[in-house]
Every structure is written in C-alpha cells, then in structure tokens.
Amino acid sequence: MRIEFKQVRSTLVVKLSGEFDMLIAEKLRREIDSRLDSKQISNLIINLEKVTFIDSSGLGVIIGRYKKIHAQKGHMYIVGAAPSIEKILVFSGINKLIPIYKNEQDIINI
Question: Is 12:5 a contact under the CB 8 Å cutoff?
Fold first, then answer.
C-alpha cells in the first residue's frame, strides 16, 4: 500500500492506493493520529480512489478516525471509492456516518 499525505489549510487529505488491510491499518492509524494531534486539522479526507481491497481492519481505521475528528468538532469525508469498495462502505453503514463523494472537488464545492 502507498500512503500520501497533503495538508491544505485545516484539511488533511490522505490518499491511499493498494490493499487497505490489517498489514497497513495500524501504521496508517498512527500516522493519521500523529497529524491530527500535532496540527490544527478540522477536516479529514480519505481518498480511496486507488484502493483495490479493504477489510475489517481498514474499516476500523476509518471509523476510529471519524470518532477522533468528530470529537474535535471536525468533519470527515471519503472520496473516490470504486464501486466494489463503496459497496462495502455502504454494507458496513459507514456511509451513514461519513459522506462519500466521487472526488475531492465535490467536497470543495459544498
């Protein structure tokens, strides 16, 4: 898995590619939390455009980061999920907590 971080003002964008599974989940959790704890972040965007697989540990990282950013009165968004990944997000109910958009530009326009 490849992970890219970008901060635009108070928004942290995390772009993932590859398999989002238990092998990367803990590392990703630590890296996101470190940035959320050390910087003035009020929005978190998880870009899943290039994610080919997600398991329960990946879903757990997403839900945990939602709880953390929400506790800080921030907002979280998911963008770019392929239909198969979006289906898993919907079946898990994550879409009821975190809005899912086609691309980052859709969030900027809200």
Answer: yes
Pairing of strands 11-20, 2-8: antiparallel
Phi/psi zone of residue 73: left (φ > 0), alpha (ψ -120 to 50 degrees), beta?
Answer: left
Query: Could you tell me the pTM of the whole model?
Result: 0.92
2-43: pLDDT as tens digits: 999 999 888 999 999 999 999 999 999 999 999 998 878 999
Q: Say which residues have a Cβ less than 8 Å from residue 58's Cβ, sequence separation at least 6.
A: 20, 21, 22, 24, 25
The strand pairing partners of 77, in sequence order, are 45
d(CA 53, CA 59): 11
The backbone region for 18, taken as left when phi is positive above 0, alpha when psi lies in -120 to 50, beta otherwise, is left
Domains annotated on the chain, with CATH: 2-108 (3.30.750.24)
